[in-house]
Design a protein that fits this description.
The chain is mainly beta. It has one domain. The protein is built from no helices and eight strands. The chain is globular.
Length: about 90
């Protein structure tokens, strides 16, 4: 499911257009799609942070499901759960 940014200019969504689940952003008019995760793992469930600075998502890139955050347009990712459990990003609240 696509989720609009707090300012209404962008959407973030999960797609398999690259052969696996990736997180993309694009303008609300559909222009400028950009892969935000670019990894052979499955990345899903991206909610925006309330200030639009971050996108959270779930990824299995470390061998189990972890919650990561990234700044749109910046491919730096941060694992914020780093547990042996199956973690899932759902919302910023």
């Amino acid at each position: 499911m696509a989720k609009g940014s707090p300012d209404g200019a962008l959407v973030v969504f999960t797609t398999n257009r690259d052969g696996n689940q990736e997180i993309y952003t694009m303008r609300i008019d559909g222009a400028s799609p950009a892969n935000q995760t670019n990894n052979p793992s499955n990345d899903t469930g991206p909610p925006w942070s309330p200030n639009q600075a971050w996108v959270a998502f779930t990824s299995d890139r470390d061998g189990n499901r972890e919650v990561y955050i990234t700044k749109p347009g910046n491919l730096e990712l941060y694992n914020i759960t780093n547990t042996p459990y199956q973690d899932q990003a759902t919302d910023w609240r």
